């Protein structure tokens, strides 16, 4: 997972490769960040095929402080290689049991294709 912060727009854009070993957990992480910081999904899309398929989610925060706190949260809980850190998985299980919301995000992005 890669993420880019756009403080002027109070937005973080997440890009997730389907080839990631923890693909569904990465989607669940984006869901958790959205819920934790009272944000909303502005857009969801995907492109490419096979191992090159990528999902992009633009998440908008209610204010700059929330966006900045969400960025710090991502910095702490996403490894330099883009994986969700292993000790954060319990929070994902709590926030998205069965990864239902993560799968719903995946479907929304595919519908926008």
* Cα gyration radius (Å): 13 Å
Spatial strand order of the main sheet: 1-2-4-3
Distance between the terminal alpha carbons, to the nearest Å? 20 Å
CATH topology: Alpha-Beta Plaits
| Coarse structural class | alpha+beta
* Range of helix content: 40-55%
**Number of helical stretches of at least 4 residues:** 4
Query: What general outline do the C-alpha atoms trace?
Result: globular
As residue ranges, the low-confidence spans are: none
Number of domains: 1
Structure summary, number of beta strands: 4
Q: How are helices and strands ordered from N to C?
A: EEHEEHHH
Mean pLDDT value: 95
CATH architecture: 2-Layer Sandwich
User: For the report, how would you describe the main beta sheet?
Assistant: 4 strands, antiparallel
The CATH class name reads: Alpha Beta
**In percent, how much strand structure appears in the residues?**
15-25%
Give an overview in words:
The protein is α+β, with helices and mostly antiparallel strands. The chain has a single domain, classed as Alpha-Beta Plaits (2-Layer Sandwich). 42% of the residues lie in helices and 24% in strands. It contains four helices and four strands, in the order E-E-H-E-E-H-H-H. It has helices spanning 23-36, 64-77, 89-95, 100-111, and strands spanning 2-6, 11-17, 40-47, 54-60. A four-stranded antiparallel beta sheet has the order 1-2-4-3, with helices on one face. A hairpin with a 6-residue loop joins strand 3 and strand 4 (54-60). Helix 1 crosses helix 3 (89-95) and helix 1 (23-36) crosses helix 4. The longest helix is centred in the N-terminal third of the chain and has 14 residues, at 23-36. The model has no long low-confidence stretch (mean pLDDT 95).
